[in-house]
Amino acid sequence: MNRYLLTIILGALVGTMGGMEGQAGDLQILTGLLLFGIVKTQRQAAGTTLLFNTIPFMWAAAYEYYRRGDLDIKISAILVITSMIFSYLGARLNYMVSPVFVNYSVAVTSTLAGAYFFYRAYKGMD
């Protein structure tokens, strides 16, 4: 299948999930780019995902949460500033460590996040 068509499908799925779940979809984009063969390497997937995340595509969804009183602007601002600084450092680090280490890192953090949300669902937590 054409990689541009696959990219449109991936974007539609991740956008829908992100708006519903309250996440930007970085992990899903990163995984989808590699899984569907849209890009060739983890580093290409990382760079593409980071650029994707810089475009304010989720502003419409964030506005809906803001409109309903479910958005903490101060916390968001702190996260944006801190993440900007440390994402630069993380990108530099990516070129200093083995791609295998980076893949393990993504796997471990994804597994831990997944386990946490399974726990919340199991306990019926909001």
Write out key terms for the chains shown.
126 residues, mainly alpha, single chain
The multimeric state of the shown protein is single chain
Individual helix count: 6
The shape, in one word, is globular
- Determine the structural class based on helices, strands and strand pairing: mainly alpha
Radius of gyration: 16 Å
Helix coverage percent of residues?
over 70%
**Largest pleated sheet:** none
Provide the β-strand percentage band: under 5%
When the domains are counted, the total is 2
Separation of the first and last Cα atoms? 39 Å
Give the overall average pLDDT.
Answer: 88
**SSE series:** HHHHHH
Low-confidence stretches: none
Number of strands: 0
Commentary on this structure:
This protein has 126 residues and is mostly helical. Helix 2 runs antiparallel to helix 3. The protein folds into two domains: 93 residues, no CATH class; 29 residues. It is 78% helix and 0% strand. It has six helices and no strands.
Q: In a nutshell, what does this entry contain?
A:
This protein has 126 residues and is mainly α. The chain has two domains: 3-95, no CATH class; 98-126. Helices cover 78% and strands 0% of the residues.
